[in-house]
Amino acid sequence: MKLCKRFSLVNAVSGLAGVLKMASTSGNALQQPSLQEKTFEAGWEKFLQSKDKWLEKVRQSLRSILSQRVQAGLKISQQMISQYEEILEQIARSQQATPEQRETDQVWINQKRQQLEAIQQEIATTLN
Questions:
Q1: Which of 83, 6, 85 is CA-nearest to residue 52?
Q2: Cα distance between residue 26 and residue 19, in whole Å
């Protein structure tokens, strides 16, 4: 959304304030503005002068927040890509392995499983 569209409300309120000011003074052209009108005008002018500063602060905050979120998303996606690459490399290595290597690996895995089961049984026996 363009900046001018964002401030159409501000412009509308400003125009309304002008119309109200003209309507209040149209009955008596020589009538002096009341203290309330002067206060409103002064406050409105300060608001119009400070709106650009506030908008820039809001923009900076949004940029910072979005930048942090984008960086976090990039970091996570890079980690995921790295993990998938590792998995693909492992698959490629296992596909290139000879049947003898696979059998040797399977025997080693079975031995480790049996050792772990024995340790688990010892722990269960000790705890009972």
A1: 6
A2: 10
Q: Could you give the CA distance from residue 86 to residue 95 in angstroms, rounded to a whole number?
A: 14
| 3 state SS of 82 | helix
**Of 10, 37, 35, 43, which is closest to residue 22 (Cα–Cα)?**
37
State pTM to two decimals: 0.41
Instruction: Quote the Cα angle for 99-104-106, to 5°.
Output: 95
Say if CB 113 and CB 105 are below 8 A apart. Answer: no
Round to whole Å and give the CA distance between 106 and 112.
10
* Look-up of token digits 């149209």: 26
CB atoms within 10 A of CB 105: 12
Quick: pLDDT tens for 53-106. Answer: 889 999 999 999 999 998 998 999 999 999 999 999 888 887 887 888 888 888
Q: Under a CB-based contact definition with an 8 Å cutoff, are residues 17 and 37 in contact?
A: no
Given CA atoms 80, 81, 82, 88 in this order, what sign does their dihedral have? positive
